Amino acid sequence: MFEKFESFEIAAGAGGAAGGGSNFLSLILPLVLMFAIFYFLLIRPQQKKQKTRNSMLSALKKGDKVVTIGGLHGTIMEITDDTVVLRVNDVTKLTFDRNSISHAISTAAEGEK
């Protein structure tokens, strides 16, 4: 009974030595597949999201209604390359970093309210 197992190990060892190139491929293939999965599930969507956010920030203009990351709603009164002055109510104006804008409120969504 033990002789069968020994002969199997010898045969498996001999076959493994002859196919050394396939051994290397079997080690690299899972790493390549993991990288591809990470790229398509994590990296690529994050890059697309960052691209749309940058285009939204560059398209901001005076008079747009926006929401900051902290949840403050306001209207843009002044805008420069790195700062935004928001009018919160009739007398209150606050200065924020341009990157602190979360999203712009579309006029179509505002008209539905």
From TrEMBL:
Q: Which key words tag this protein in UniProt?
A: Cell membrane, Membrane, Protein transport, Translocation, Transmembrane, Transmembrane helix, Transport
User: Any signal peptide, and if so, which residues?
Assistant: none
Q: Does the keyword Transmembrane apply?
A: yes
What is its membrane topology? Single-pass membrane protein
- Respond yes or no to whether keyword Transmembrane helix is given for this record: yes
Kindly give the Pfam families that the UniProt entry links to this protein. YajC
State where the protein is found.
Answer: Cell membrane
The portions of this protein that span the membrane are 24-43
Q: Which family does it belong to?
A: Belongs to the YajC family.
Question: Could you identify this protein by its name?
Answer: Preprotein translocase subunit YajC
